[in-house]
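Please fill in the sequence for the structure shown.

STRUCTURE ENCODING:
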């Protein structure tokens, strides 16, 4: 769910972040990976980066298996259509029925085709991110 009061520099950038977060909520691995270049890089905080879409597949599967559902609220978006950042509040419904809120920001760099070249995510190391952070194990 997008926050209508979101400040944006570029409407296309805001629309991209809504589409990206809608994809995260859908929890569909193939739909998620379709947003990335084959030679992408993803890094969460200071964890070792995940390099390539192939490595990202296993990490994302572990991530979505760690919770039952996810929702979001975009707080703010800055940037243009190619380089931008987003501050977002995620609410995860865990398998035990509890919920976990995670506020984070991410910075994304898109290629000319609109695919993710690199993304860096900053947020707490909540249990829902731990499986994702060990992509290179």
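FILLED IN BY: designer on duty
SEQUENCE:
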């Amino acid at each position: 769910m997008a926050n209508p009061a979101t400040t944006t520099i570029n409407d296309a950038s805001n629309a991209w972040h809504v589409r990206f977060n809608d994809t995260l909520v859908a929890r569909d691995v193939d739909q998620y990976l379709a947003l990335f270049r084959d030679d992408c890089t993803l890094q969460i905080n200071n964890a070792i980066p995940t390099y390539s879409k192939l490595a990202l597949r296993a990490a994302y599967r572990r991530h979505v298996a760690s919770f039952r559902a996810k929702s979001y609220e975009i707080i703010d978006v800055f940037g243009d259509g190619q380089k931008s950042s987003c501050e977002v509040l995620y609410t995860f419904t865990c398998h035990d029925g509890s919920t976990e809120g995670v506020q984070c920001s991410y910075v994304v760099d898109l290629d000319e085709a609109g695919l993710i070249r690199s993304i860096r995510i900053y947020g707490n190391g909540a249990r829902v991110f731990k499986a994702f952070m060990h992509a290179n194990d």
